[in-house]
Amino acid sequence: QVQLVESGGGLVQPGGSLRLSCVASGRSFSLYAMAWYRQAPGKGRELVAGITSGGSTNYADSVKGRFTISRDNAKNTVYLQMNSLQPEDTAHYYCLLQGGHWGQGTQVTVSS
User: Fold this and answer.
1) How far apart are CA 70 and CA 79, in angstroms?
2) Most Cβ neighbours (<10 Å): which of 5, 25, 31, 38?
3) Kind of pairing, strands 91-97 and 101-102?
4) Model confidence pLDDT, tens digit, residues 7-57
């Protein structure tokens, strides 16, 4: 049974930083692509960043240059380093493991 547990969200001022973590269990983590999605109130879920099993990454245009996705296969963990956060980054952030497995998400609120 696959389980994903996100952490690291919170309230941060504009211009601040947060690092999200997603720990996976129940699958050979290193073999699968991972991604971060987000959903703001009243909006659909959107891809933020993805990383393949080989470490290749892709980003939404809105976060390029500010967010960095990475993975530590020894820890079964994928990270999302978020810098220069803006109010429009406020959303619930979800971790996805290839094959359609979602975590419960973590809330990020950017506000002064």
Assistant:
1) 5
2) 38
3) antiparallel
4) 999 999 999 999 999 999 887 888 999 999 999 999 999 999 999 999 999
How many Å apart are CA 19 and CA 21, to the nearest integer? 7
Residues 61-111: tens digit of each pLDDT: 999 999 999 999 999 999 999 999 999 999 999 999 999 999 999 999 999
Q: Which two tokens stand for residue 56?
A: 């290749």
Q: What backbone torsions phi and psi does residue 31 show, to the nearest 5 degrees?
A: -85, -10
Length of the chain in terms of residues written: 112
The pair of structure tokens assigned to 34 is 């991972």
